[in-house]
């Protein structure tokens, strides 16, 4: 959004340092320092101390990373159990992920995990961050632990890394490690339907159990299945950072690296 007539004028809206401090970025004083250092922009222009903003319309960035400033935004991290669906309602009457977190404010899952897949899922009412976390252009990494039938050979693991042919096209290079005889750790940055299951099927080692263990910078080994917690402001910020570089611009993307790290 450009600096349109909707932007807050000199005397209305909230003070920028107050809005930034509310997101957990630091104390008001620390946020004033960020502004004074020229690290904060409003609608693409470097902000000056004393600036007021309209949290519903102004686009605020710190070091080029968009910051979600609307009050009332919530971010939950859920450890989804097997058998629970990632939609708001299920025609078959199965339990939904939305029913496992507080009902108000209403939130939606960021992307989907198959009913059979377990592990980390973010739920939020922040539409902008949801878009960035799910759009392939932003290439946010997702890491899975896949227990598979049999022991994949080195060649099979290499095929997963290099990309396998699926019926909707080849997969992008992935980071893949065999961490136990029948356990693969697979990191991808695409979000195609049942992608990990189809990749493993394609190399002849169907998935028996699939757990998502990381979303970008977010991981939590202590969160028990079926339970949730709020993301900390630092985690939200780290997610915003991970989702701010589009593929081809560096950041979280693998594009431009000679070879993906393994
Ligand atoms: N890949 C899958 O196959 N299933 C999921 O739920 C997520 C990634």
Summarize the structure.
The chain is of the alpha+beta class and 262 residues long. The protein has helices at residues 16-22, 28-36, 127-134, 154-162, 195-202, 233-242; strands at residues 14-15, 40-42, 45-46, 52-53, 60-62, 65-66, 75-80, 108-109, 118-124, 142-148, 165-166, 169-170, 175-180, 183-188, 207-215, 228-230.
Given the C-alpha coordinates, what overall shape results?
A: elongated
Work out the radius of gyration: 21 Å
CATH hierarchy, class of the largest domain: Alpha Beta
CATH architecture verdict of the largest domain: 2-Layer Sandwich
Task: Output the CATH topology of the largest domain.
Answer: Alpha-Beta Plaits
Distance between the termini: 38 Å
Helical coverage, percent range: 10-25%
Class derived from helix and strand content: alpha+beta
Mean pLDDT: 88
Characterize the structure shown.
The structure is a single chain. The chain contains 6 helices and 16 strands. It is an alpha+beta fold. It folds into 3 domains: 64 residues, RNA-binding S4 domain (Structural Genomics Hypothetical 15.5 Kd Protein In mrcA-pckA Intergenic Region, Chain A, Roll), CATH 3.10.290; 87 residues, Pseudouridine synthase I, catalytic domain, N-terminal subdomain (Alpha-Beta Plaits, 2-Layer Sandwich), CATH 3.30.70.580; 75 residues, Alpha-L RNA-binding motif (Alpha-Beta Plaits). The strands form 4 sheets. Strands 7, 8, 9, 10, 13, 14, 15 and 16 form an 8-stranded mixed sheet that branches. Strands 3-2-5-6 form a 4-stranded antiparallel sheet. Strand 11 and strand 12 form a beta hairpin. Helix 1 packs across helix 2. The longest helix is centred in the C-terminal third of the chain and has 10 residues. It is elongated. The N terminus and C terminus are likely disordered. Uracil binds next to helix 5.
